[in-house]
Amino acid sequence: MSPDFLFFLEIIVSGLMAGVMYSLVALGFVLIFKASGIFNFAQGVLCLFAALALYDFIAPGGWVDRWFGFTLPVWLGIIMTAGVMVIVAWLIERLVLRYLVNQAPIILFMATIGLAYVLEGMGDILFGSDVKPLDIGLPQGASDYMLDTFGLYVEKLEIVAAFVAAALVAVLAVFFQKTRIGRALRAVADDHQAALSVGISLRTIWVIVWSVAGIVAMVAGIMWGSKSGVQFSLSLIALKALPVLILGGFTSVPGAIIGGLIIGVGEKLAEIYVGPLFGGAIENWFAYMLALAFLLVRPQGLFGEKIIERV
Amino acid sequence: MLYRETGQFKPTYQADQAIFPIAQDRWFITAVLAVAFLVVPLLIDDYWANAIFLPFLAYALAAIGLNILTGYCGQVSLGTGGFMAVGAFSAFKLMTAFPDLNFIIVVILAGGVTALVGVLFGLPSLRIKGFYLAVATLAAQFFLVWLFNKVGWFINYNATGQVTAPPVEFFGVLIIGPEATPPARYLFCLAFVAVFALAAKNIVRGRIGRSWMAIRDMDIAAELIGIRPLEAKLSAFAVSSFYVGMAGALYFAVWLGAAEPGEAFGIEQSFFVLFIIIVGGLGSILGSFLGAAFMVLMPILLKNFMVNGIGVEVVTAKHVEITTMGILIVFFLIVEPHGLARLWQITKEKLRLWPFPH
Fold first, then answer.
1. pTM given for the model
2. Chain B 142-171, residues with CB within 8 Å of chain A CB atoms
3. What is the ipTM of this complex?
């Protein structure tokens, strides 16, 4: 293979891998939007919160270490963090969402922005605001196999992330399609009132959905945390997930994945081949422009439900 | 007994359709304006001007702008920071290119430039709506800030990446620059905001404002009764951006004096102004002022209370401030989703009957 083509391939692969990371964040958005029609701005902060909590459970110098003099094994730390996310989800339902049923979507959206501020401030107060390296034993560095066989430079961590994302989507698909709770979730997503009238408790469902979204956020937080350390900027990846969402459609899980991949690849290609024309650093807004251009053709995104309006 | 309109007859349609049809309202607003124009300039010093009054006025104007778009026309925008940047940088370019131009004209031209940019970024609103549009306006936010950071022409190739407003005289009185006195800066902003708030109030009461509200309430129905969505939406974007641009110009030139695009006009600004109109009340000009006052004063009071009152460290106080702001926003949304303006309305209705319960 010629070096040029190899370089191109490498960009594509690294774009795909970055896209997987975006997809992980976007997934959490889609879950909550589908089940409750809430555009949850706090998703990125949830990632940060989960990563911070996990750090304090397992890392030397974290809370558990300082208080009890030992650190938890990674698997127990992850389970504990999942527990924390469930508690957070329950608190959010109990203290905020319960009082906002039937409000306009913009009000709920604003409430989640408020929530993001609360979680961010709380995270800083509880866990401190310095950058923390998160090491849960995921492989680091370049993959020798890919380098030797194809001559491609691929981060091991990104390969792991791809597998984790695939597993997560599979688990979610089974959960939504095959379980009783999953059926109830789909019912609520379809029609709140009809779901209520057949005896599905909206409140329980919301707690479950937010818990699931919290756990997805935890997975995303672990991946991003292992990649670039746990720090405040983690909450800003939520902004990166937004173009992914509008590209894929707010209501579609496959849309989140494919949208993420398209954005990841598009961004990398644009940065390399178009960026120099504009003086670089176009990564910040290119994804939005791509999504915007796309919306003009298909207002509901790639896989979103067709918007039907009635008077 | 104090606030009762009994006996105030309106013999003409004009009297009936006045902005403040009730005499007590007129007295009240006259009193507020009199205090703002006559009393405050006597008392104001540098701290009060920089920490409270100038940010209040700049944010109130920006909030009126966003309220026109989001509160009256129903198009959610997260690009306010970017549009403020457009206003600020057009003002900067005009001030440095034409130093003799009257500053009023500079600000209005800056608003005009922003209106054009706003219409451009408002075009997608014809196809997409709701959250899709909100995310699309983020494109404006990131793109504009990147543009001002990247293209040297906008900052006159200043090596520090910062822009500094040159001193400006207004009919012989210095209103911009380190030498300008607080009362001069304050009065200039106040006059601007007062005039344009009045204009906004009249626009939203008139034909255009009504067409915006029809689009907000249901765009298909509005189309059916003969309102053109193209005209209504784009005019809302234009007028809104015009206000936001002027606010950006005042924010940069009169209040800050120097700015750096990424910091002064980041996405936090967009959220801050959005918070102002949510707390103040969507679809209310008065609400824009109440919200701006609340959002400007709250962090200052909170910080004073924590740092000077109970001796919390400054860093912790910052975190607590963020948390409290979040809590307050959620609290407001739960208790009064229509904001402070609605509370004011309720108070007035209670006052009408006071001291009787019914």
1. 0.88
2. 142-143, 146, 150
3. 0.82
